[in-house]
């Protein structure tokens, strides 16, 4: 299940806002659940997950995006410091700033090209309203 609150925004309308109620799941939580679904030990899964970020960083630094089946695609973006340059020759690597990792969740499309499923959204997702009261 997932949780939401009703919130009145500046437009004067009420909107739904997804909220997180519990502490973040840890690498241990992920390793435990993956081990329960497979024949791989928790320790082996943990060891792989610990190195995953570094390996993905190396792959993206080599000019590649990283597509993980069932998860999605990760890739680098950057901005140019200042207002840009008038010629391509003036633009240097020292002007690159605000490097970020972007993520596009995996999805599937139907015959008419509409999105029919997203792997990271539970097919049995149920929303539960929570109040603002603590």
Describe this structure in words.
- The protein folds into two domains: 25-64, no CATH class; 65-121, no CATH class.
- The relative contact order is 0.17.
- The protein has 134 residues and is an alpha+beta fold.
- The chain has helices spanning 27-37, 42-61, and strands spanning 2-8, 14-19, 66-68, 72-80, 96-105, 107-109, 115-118, 127-129.
- The strands form three sheets. The chain has a three-stranded mixed beta sheet with strand order 2-1-8, with no helix packed on it. Strands 3-4-5 form a three-stranded antiparallel beta sheet.
- The mean pLDDT is 90.
- A hairpin with a 3-residue loop joins strand 3 and strand 4.
- It is built from two helices and eight strands; from the N terminus they run E-E-H-H-E-E-E-E-E-E.
- It is extended.
What is the structure about, briefly put?
With 134 residues, the protein is α+β, with helices and mostly antiparallel strands. It contains two helices and eight strands. Helices cover 23% and strands 34% of the residues.
């Amino acid at each position: 299940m997932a949780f939401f609150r009703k919130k009145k925004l500046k437009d004067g309308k009420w909107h739904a806002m997804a909220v997180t109620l519990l502490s973040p799941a840890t690498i241990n939580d992920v390793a435990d659940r993956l081990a329960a679904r497979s024949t791989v030990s928790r320790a082996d899964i943990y060891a792989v997950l610990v190195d995953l970020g570094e390996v993905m960083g190396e792959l993206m630094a080599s000019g590649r995006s990283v597509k993980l089946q069932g998860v999605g695609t990760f890739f680098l973006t950057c901005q140019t410091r200042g207002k840009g340059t008038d010629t391509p020759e003036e633009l240097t690597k020292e002007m690159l700033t605000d490097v970020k990792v972007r993520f596009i969740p995996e999805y599937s499309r139907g015959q008419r090209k509409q999105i029919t499923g997203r792997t990271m959204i539970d097919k049995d997702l149920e929303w539960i309203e929570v109040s603002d009261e603590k």
